[in-house]
Design brief:
397 residues, alpha/beta, 11-stranded mixed beta sheet, 3-stranded parallel beta sheet, 13 helices, globular
Length: 397
């Protein structure tokens, strides 16, 4: 089963999904030539293949895929993580908690499909299309994975990519302005994220309440929820001690007592990621001591305060910070570690929420020097992207 005609194999069903620029119905003939045996469509096509007509292929894809792949992934524990920042790191920590050395758990998201530390496939989308995601999960279950931690983007939720799945536990990290070129406003962005926590879509929730969006989510959902954060109204109060390049210590004040988590991850911002992963793992049935040990042994994902070089007096780091909040946290972390000058090299992707570029540049201007560069401009003029960034630099700079 596939929604991409180029990836159809003999015996597949082809889902003719409409998209922003292309309509899958236009590629049904190519899918047939590649061996498709059936079509899922919104309008009947002049093709001899059997066709299932539905009001929306996007809406039906998850249900159709679940009918095909559901029995194959039986027994696979599913954990989902959503939020603006921290999804990849929380997923990696959670996957470490949910697996064992003999039976590692899987991770699906921005950095690819991993089984334990082994990369099985790279990713184009943070959350794959419904048939691709369910095929991956079925393959992971057949390969012996006991669980999978899945990054769930707002696009993935709005485009119904996780329909047909029920997550045993779902984590909300945070919400800040991002992807508003797609969603329109923060209410629609929040509504997309909220879908993951509806009854019938997840069984239990773990929600960070350090923002009003998290507190609102915890109030509105009906599934059992554990809240955590740095304020007294959280079910689990967290206290974070950053130890520079040595990592973190996170103290959790639970109703039943206290837990201490250590991690090699750098920066206080990762304290909430560690706490969310730990609480989700325990909610999924992992023994607390085992979850804490797994987090202590888990490295950072690629591109998340990834130290490229620390030779001599300089420190060179790559970080995926892609929102103003994340960039501000990166700057604060760097300032706490580096006594000397801080230089940022910052780019902005083409076709991705241009309104945030000036804000990113404004935050980056807190460094001692900033170099603006091109970053996957796509169909946009790189000079126009750089103009948007430069427009955010405060006049005094």
């Amino acid at each position: 089963m596939s929604a991409d005609s180029r990836r159809v194999e003999p015996g597949d069903a082809f889902l003719a999904m409409p998209g922003g620029r292309l309509d899958g119905h236009e590629f049904a003939a190519e899918a047939a030539r590649r061996g498709a045996v059936a079509l899922v469509v919104e309008r009947f096509l002049p093709d001899p293949l059997p066709q299932l007509q539905v009001p929306s292929v996007i809406a039906a894809a998850g249900t159709v895929a679940s009918a095909c792949y559901g029995p194959l992934r039986e027994g696979l524990l599913l954990a989902g993580v959503t939020g603006t920042n921290g999804k990849t790191t929380t997923c990696q920590l959670l996957a470490a908690c949910l697996g064992e050395s003999a039976r590692p758990a899987a991770q699906v998201g921005t950095t690819g499909v991993h089984l334990g530390r082994r990369l099985l496939a790279s990713s184009v989308l943070t959350t794959p299309q419904a048939p691709d995601l369910q095929a991956v999960l079925a393959a992971l279950a057949l390969a012996g994975a006991p669980a999978a931690a899945v990054e769930i983007s707002s696009h993935g939720l709005a485009r119904r990519r996780v329909d047909g799945l029920v997550f045993d536990v779902a984590v909300f990290t945070n919400l800040s302005p991002e992807h508003l070129d797609f969603h329109g406003d923060m209410e629609a962005y929040f509504a997309a994220k909220r879908r993951l926590f509806e009854a019938g879509r997840c069984r239990r929730a773990v929600v960070c309440v350090d923002s009003e969006w998290g507190r609102r989510l915890a109030r509105e959902i009906s599934v059992p929820v554990t809240t955590f954060g740095s304020t007294a109204d959280a079910d689990v109060l967290i206290e974070i001690e950053a130890r520079g390049l040595e990592g973190l210590e996170v103290r959790l004040r639970l109703p039943e007592g206290e837990a201490i988590i250590t991690s090699p991850l750098i920066g206080a911002v990762n304290g909430a990621n560690c706490a969310g992963a730990y609480l989700a793992a325990v909610a999924a049935g992992v023994a607390p001591d085992r979850a804490a040990a797994a987090i202590a042994a888990c490295p950072a994902p690629p591109g998340r305060f990834e130290i490229v070089s620390s030779r001599g007096e300089g420190l060179v780091v790559i970080d995926y910070a892609h929102t103003p909040d994340a960039l501000a946290a990166l700057l604060a972390t760097t300032r706490s570690i580096v006594p000397g000058r801080v230089t940022f090299v910052l780019g902005a992707r083409g076709g991705r929420y241009p309104a945030k570029r000036a804000a990113m540049a404004r935050v980056a201007s807190g460094a001692d020097a900033v170099v603006f560069t091109a970053d996957s401009p796509g169909d946009e003029d790189p000079a126009s992207i750089l103009d948007d960034l430069v427009a955010g630099v405060p006049p005094e700079h």
